[in-house]
Amino acid sequence: MNEHKSAHLLASPLLKKVQPPSPALDASTPLVEAPVSETKVCCTSAQSAILWVPEVIEVGMVVMTYKVNPDSDLQDVDTDAIAETIATLRNDDYDIQAIETKPLAFGLKFVQVHVKMNDGEGLADAFEAQMSEIHGVGEIEVLSMGLI
User: Fold this and answer.
1) For residues 147 and 64, what is the distance between their CA atoms, to the nearest angstrom?
2) Chain-centre distance for alpha carbon 135
3) Alpha carbon distance 30, 46 (integer Å)
4) Least buried of 9, 82, 117, 145, by fewest C-beta within 10 Å?
5) Where are the domains of the chain?
6) E strand residue ranges, the chain
7) Three-state secondary structure call for residue 80
8) Would the CA dihedral through 50, 4, 12, 35 be positive or negative?
Protein backbone atom coordinates (compact mmCIF):
# COMPACT_ATOMS: atom_id res chain seq x y z
CA MET A 1 0.00 0.00 0.00
CA ASN A 2 1.45 3.35 -0.87
CA GLU A 3 1.90 6.23 1.59
CA HIS A 4 -1.10 8.27 0.32
CA LYS A 5 -3.59 5.41 0.71
CA SER A 6 -2.25 4.57 4.16
CA ALA A 7 -2.73 8.16 5.38
CA HIS A 8 -6.24 8.17 3.91
CA LEU A 9 -7.15 5.01 5.82
CA LEU A 10 -5.86 6.42 9.10
CA ALA A 11 -8.02 9.53 8.68
CA SER A 12 -11.10 7.48 7.89
CA PRO A 13 -14.13 7.99 10.19
CA LEU A 14 -14.33 4.20 10.46
CA LEU A 15 -10.92 4.03 12.10
CA LYS A 16 -10.68 1.07 14.45
CA LYS A 17 -6.96 0.53 14.93
CA VAL A 18 -4.30 3.22 15.25
CA GLN A 19 -0.70 3.56 16.24
CA PRO A 20 -0.30 4.52 19.93
CA PRO A 21 1.21 7.97 20.53
CA SER A 22 4.90 7.42 21.21
CA PRO A 23 8.10 9.31 20.57
CA ALA A 24 9.53 6.40 18.56
CA LEU A 25 6.85 5.08 16.22
CA ASP A 26 7.73 2.77 13.41
CA ALA A 27 6.00 0.17 11.28
CA SER A 28 6.69 -2.54 13.87
CA THR A 29 4.75 -0.73 16.63
CA PRO A 30 1.68 -2.80 17.53
CA LEU A 31 -1.75 -1.42 16.78
CA VAL A 32 -4.14 -0.70 19.66
CA GLU A 33 -7.92 -0.71 19.74
CA ALA A 34 -9.51 2.73 20.13
CA PRO A 35 -13.25 3.41 20.47
CA VAL A 36 -14.23 5.32 17.35
CA SER A 37 -16.94 7.39 19.05
CA GLU A 38 -14.59 8.72 21.75
CA THR A 39 -11.48 9.56 19.74
CA LYS A 40 -10.55 11.97 17.04
CA VAL A 41 -7.54 11.75 14.73
CA CYS A 42 -5.56 14.99 14.90
CA CYS A 43 -2.58 14.32 12.68
CA THR A 44 -1.90 11.43 10.40
CA SER A 45 1.01 10.07 8.47
CA ALA A 46 1.68 6.79 6.74
CA GLN A 47 3.15 5.44 9.97
CA SER A 48 1.06 6.83 12.83
CA ALA A 49 -1.96 8.73 14.03
CA ILE A 50 -2.06 11.01 17.04
CA LEU A 51 -5.27 10.59 19.00
CA TRP A 52 -7.20 13.17 20.93
CA VAL A 53 -9.56 11.75 23.55
CA PRO A 54 -12.02 14.34 24.87
CA GLU A 55 -11.89 14.81 28.63
CA VAL A 56 -14.85 15.29 30.89
CA ILE A 57 -15.43 19.01 31.25
CA GLU A 58 -16.65 20.10 34.64
CA VAL A 59 -19.34 22.72 34.75
CA GLY A 60 -18.33 25.99 36.39
CA MET A 61 -20.24 27.96 38.95
CA VAL A 62 -22.24 31.12 38.34
CA VAL A 63 -23.03 33.85 40.86
CA MET A 64 -26.14 35.86 40.07
CA THR A 65 -27.71 38.87 41.74
CA TYR A 66 -31.45 39.36 41.24
CA LYS A 67 -33.68 42.33 41.95
CA VAL A 68 -37.12 41.01 42.89
CA ASN A 69 -39.75 43.74 42.72
CA PRO A 70 -43.13 43.45 44.44
CA ASP A 71 -46.19 42.97 42.25
CA SER A 72 -47.49 46.45 41.40
CA ASP A 73 -51.08 45.15 41.09
CA LEU A 74 -51.14 44.14 44.77
CA GLN A 75 -51.24 46.52 47.70
CA ASP A 76 -49.16 46.15 50.85
CA VAL A 77 -46.88 43.38 49.59
CA ASP A 78 -44.71 42.07 52.42
CA THR A 79 -41.18 42.02 50.99
CA ASP A 80 -39.86 40.38 54.17
CA ALA A 81 -42.24 37.44 53.58
CA ILE A 82 -41.03 37.23 49.97
CA ALA A 83 -37.42 37.16 51.21
CA GLU A 84 -38.21 34.38 53.68
CA THR A 85 -39.93 32.32 50.99
CA ILE A 86 -37.01 32.79 48.57
CA ALA A 87 -34.68 31.52 51.31
CA THR A 88 -36.58 28.21 51.27
CA LEU A 89 -35.54 27.68 47.62
CA ARG A 90 -32.02 26.79 48.79
CA ASN A 91 -31.10 23.23 47.74
CA ASP A 92 -28.29 21.28 46.06
CA ASP A 93 -28.65 23.31 42.84
CA TYR A 94 -29.09 26.78 44.35
CA ASP A 95 -26.84 28.06 47.13
CA ILE A 96 -28.43 31.33 48.22
CA GLN A 97 -25.59 33.45 49.56
CA ALA A 98 -27.55 36.49 50.78
CA ILE A 99 -31.03 38.00 50.70
CA GLU A 100 -31.54 41.68 51.43
CA THR A 101 -34.60 43.89 51.56
CA LYS A 102 -33.71 47.33 50.16
CA PRO A 103 -35.63 50.58 49.72
CA LEU A 104 -36.97 51.28 46.22
CA ALA A 105 -38.95 54.55 46.30
CA PHE A 106 -41.80 56.18 48.22
CA GLY A 107 -41.70 53.57 50.98
CA LEU A 108 -41.61 50.65 48.57
CA LYS A 109 -38.97 47.95 48.93
CA PHE A 110 -37.45 45.25 46.75
CA VAL A 111 -35.62 42.03 47.54
CA GLN A 112 -32.05 41.56 46.36
CA VAL A 113 -30.99 37.90 46.06
CA HIS A 114 -27.40 36.66 45.66
CA VAL A 115 -27.31 33.02 44.55
CA LYS A 116 -24.56 30.64 43.44
CA MET A 117 -25.45 27.79 41.08
CA ASN A 118 -23.91 25.45 38.53
CA ASP A 119 -23.52 26.85 35.06
CA GLY A 120 -25.93 24.27 33.69
CA GLU A 121 -28.40 24.84 30.92
CA GLY A 122 -31.74 26.12 32.19
CA LEU A 123 -30.82 26.38 35.89
CA ALA A 124 -31.05 30.18 36.02
CA ASP A 125 -34.39 30.17 34.21
CA ALA A 126 -35.74 27.50 36.56
CA PHE A 127 -34.69 29.53 39.61
CA GLU A 128 -36.36 32.66 38.22
CA ALA A 129 -39.52 30.64 37.52
CA GLN A 130 -39.56 29.39 41.12
CA MET A 131 -39.21 32.94 42.45
CA SER A 132 -41.92 34.26 40.14
CA GLU A 133 -44.41 31.73 41.56
CA ILE A 134 -44.13 33.29 45.03
CA HIS A 135 -47.18 35.37 45.99
CA GLY A 136 -46.41 39.07 45.75
CA VAL A 137 -43.48 38.79 43.34
CA GLY A 138 -43.67 41.05 40.33
CA GLU A 139 -40.81 41.74 37.94
CA ILE A 140 -37.50 39.89 38.39
CA GLU A 141 -34.39 41.56 37.03
CA VAL A 142 -30.84 40.19 36.78
CA LEU A 143 -28.52 42.83 38.23
CA SER A 144 -25.26 40.93 37.73
CA MET A 145 -23.94 37.59 36.64
CA GLY A 146 -20.43 36.22 36.87
CA LEU A 147 -18.49 32.98 36.56
CA ILE A 148 -16.40 31.67 39.42
Assistant:
1) 9
2) 30
3) 14
4) 145
5) 3-52, 61-147
6) 17-18, 32-33, 40-44, 49-52, 61-70, 94-105, 108-118, 137-147
7) helix
8) negative
